[in-house]
Amino acid sequence: IAALSPQLKPLWTAEKLQKVWESQVTDNTGPFKRIVKSKLLDAINANLVIVTVEFEKVTEDVTVTFNRAGQIVAADFPEFRSISEIGDAFVKALANKDYGLARGYLHPFLKAEVFPTRVQGAWENLLKRTGPVRRVVGTQVRKGSDTDGVDLVLVTIQFEKLTDTLILVFDDQKQIVNVDFPLGN
User: Fold this and answer.
1) Cα 21 to chain center, whole Å?
2) Which of 112, 114, 162, 182 has its CA 20 to 30 A from that of 105?
3) Number of C-alpha atoms within 13 angstroms, CB side, residue 1?
């Protein structure tokens, strides 16, 4: 917890991390057994440490993203839901104003620069045009080609003023690499 970036310390309590670890990881993998290996990926704006972890049932990667100051800005655990379920969970998190949870579905490279306040700002800018969310009408997956490794999830949302489709772009690791509303300031 001490190595967390200041933007995340209020959101990532030890209790919350334990709950995520148990509900999203070990419920699906079984208990932790050992670290198999780790490797460092150096990116322009971050360093990613990919830790291959052996659990009781499976061996999966956990990715920890560090900013250039050496602070943890993200942790990505194995994902066992479909991209359709993840898309629905992303929109639900936005509608519930849980911007930290919504950010968690983004690709690690995005998380190196996009913090919950930016996700909140982008979502609130969209809501200025649409009004609040009334309900999710439906979710559709459009599979990409085998060569690009990219799939789309289209989440149709009925807002107060209109019905619109939010387009989420997923990579082959089930992480959101783009959203069709800008995550800028």
Assistant:
1) 15
2) 162
3) 10
Q: Residue 141: pLDDT above 50? A: yes
How would you label 49-75 residue by residue, b for 16+ Cβ within 10 Å and e otherwise?
A: eeeebbbeeeebbbbbbbbeeebbbbb
User: DSSP of 16-68, one letter per residue?
Assistant: HHHHHIIIIIIHHH-SEEEEEEEEEEE-SS-EEEEEEEEESS-EEEEEEEE-T
185 confidence band (pLDDT: 50, 70, 90): very low
Number of H helices and E strands in the chain, helices first, is 6, 8
Round the average pLDDT of the chain to a whole number and report it.
89
Mean pLDDT of 141-159: 85
Output the six-digit token pair for 112.
């190196």
DSSP 4: B
Owner of token pair 């990667």: 61
Q: What is the pLDDT of residues 124-140, one digit of tens each?
A: 999 999 999 999 999 99
Distance of CA 76 to the CA centre of its chain: 8
Residue 11 DSSP label = T
Give the amino acid at 168: L
